[in-house]
Design a protein that fits this description.
The structure is a single chain. By secondary structure, the chain is mostly beta strands. Helix content is 0%, strand content 52%. It has no helices and eleven strands. It starts with a strand and ends with a strand.
Length: 112
């Protein structure tokens, strides 16, 4: 059974940093891309970043380029999202996605 478990969400001040983790299990981690999405209140879910485990290729939404960094640890089958210079508009529930599966999400709130 595929499982994706996000963690690391918190309340942070504008300009602060957080690192989200997505622990994956139930599939061959090295063979698939894993992505981070987010959904802000009243808005549609949007793609934030993804990484392919095979060659480490990455993608970032324009809104987070230069501030967020995605990485993976194949040994731990975990994908990380390092988020720096956080803005109030980054407030959302962040979800991990792989294959056709979603995690339950972790809440990030950026507020003073």
């Amino acid at each position: 059974e595929v499982q994706l478990a996000e963690s690391g969400g918190a309340l942070v001040h504008p300009g602060g940093s957080l690192r989200l983790s997505c622990a994956a299990s139930g599939f061959t981690f090295d063979d698939y891309a894993i992505g981070w999405f987010r959904q802000a209140p009243g808005k549609e879910r949007e793609g934030v970043s993804c990484i392919t485990s095979t060659d480490g290729s990455t993608y970032y939404a324009d809104s987070v380029k230069g501030r967020f960094t995605i990485s993976n640890d194949n040994a731990k089958t975990t994908v990380y999202l390092q988020m720096n210079s956080l803005k109030p508009e980054d407030t959302a529930v962040y979800y991990c996605h792989a294959l056709a599966y979603w995690g339950k999400g972790t809440l990030v709130t950026v507020s003073s």
